[in-house]
Amino acid sequence: MAEQRVRWGILATGGMAATFAADLVDLPDAEVVAVASRSEASARAFADRFGVARAYGDWASLASDEEVDVVYVATPHAAHRAAAGLCLEAGRNVLCEKPFTLNVREAEELVALARARGSFLMEAMWMYCHPLVRRLAALVADGAVGEVRSVQADFGLAGPFPAAHRLRDPAQGGGALLDLGVYPVSFAHLLLGEPADVVARAVLSEEGVDLQTGAVLSYESGALASVHCSIVGATPNAASVTGSAGRIDVPDGFFFPERFVLHRAGRDPEEFAADPADGPRASLRHEAREVMRALRAGEKESPLVPLDSTLAVMRTLDAVRDRIGVRYPGETGGRAGEGVGEGPGDGPGEGAGLLTPA
Fold it and tell me: Are the C-beta atoms of residues 125 and 186 closer than 8 Å to each other?
């Protein structure tokens, strides 16, 4: 029996939006019915490219479109609070790109709004929906490596990025941490939960964003997580989980792994590989399928990407930024994010930027 078709709206027309739309086209139970940008020409060009029926030159028209079941927010992350909030206020369900917001205050506002409106809300942390990552987490939870002692993960791009690039722009939430570091931090959270303490160091740019950041997260259990991100050096993008009885190594692209290896004393290494039937390695279909499954089930959040986990990751990112001294325009003393205004809109370069895992 065919699944009920889910009608998607896409807010923004940059690289992430295009990648997501292309993956939705390949899902028989998904349909992109509307797209919005602050540029009507950009919205129309996107609609023509992907065969989308309605193109809006403003966000509010998409938010109020009653024929849209869920909106995918793909703006630069400095605008996530404004874009996702507008959709939630209008009663739309929302899948919002990572990092969820600039800071935990904004994240708490979105979560409170979704819960008050009874709308579905999920961060697009596609790593949590990836079948092989889920397999790794299940093995760890089942005790395959014993008690977890340490987690290591890194994500770095070679760059160099010019000063005008969004990754160097404080007004767009630039820097390595929010764009790339969210993956190592989220990986550590998946396996260890929220840390009890955070120590961090960074190299900052002239603009005041982090070019590379390293952090050690410590846990009540005695475990440690070492995470690193960079926009000035191509790191292995690898991860490992070490426990009292073994170790799991993810040699490349831990956020969308092709394989990982389980090492246990007295046994041959066991390799776990991605199932070719799951589709392309970099596919965003897994998170789209999870959103549609949850909507059909009447769920208001996903058990794979729960909102409390998203908030915990944002608290950790705020703690790292507090330690390294990165603040964005409008932020004042206290917790990172207090006093932050809504981010820039989706004008020139809207959502532009690489699909970071590619």
Answer: yes
State the Cα–Cα distance between residues 215 and 231, nearest whole angstrom.
15
CA gap 70, 36 in Å, rounded: 13
Which string of b and e fits 190-215 if b means at least 16 CB within 10 Å? Answer: bbbebbeebebebeebeeebbbbbbb
300 has catalytic annotation: no
> CB 26: neighbour CB atoms within 10 A?
12
Based on C-alpha coordinates, what's the Rg of the chain?
20
User: Which is nearest to 320 in space by CA: 186, 119, 149, 134?
Assistant: 186
- In sequence order, the 6+-apart residues with CB closer than 8 A to the CB of 259 are 132, 250, 251, 271, 272, 273, 274
Asked if 96 and 328 touch (Cβ cutoff 8 Å), the reply is no
Reported as a single tens digit per residue, the pLDDT across 238-294 is 999 999 999 999 999 999 999 999 999 999 999 999 988 887 777 899 999 999 999
129-140 tens-digit pLDDT: 999 999 999 999
CB atoms within 10 A of CB 325: 11
Q: Which of 80, 81, 98, 286 is catalytic?
A: 98
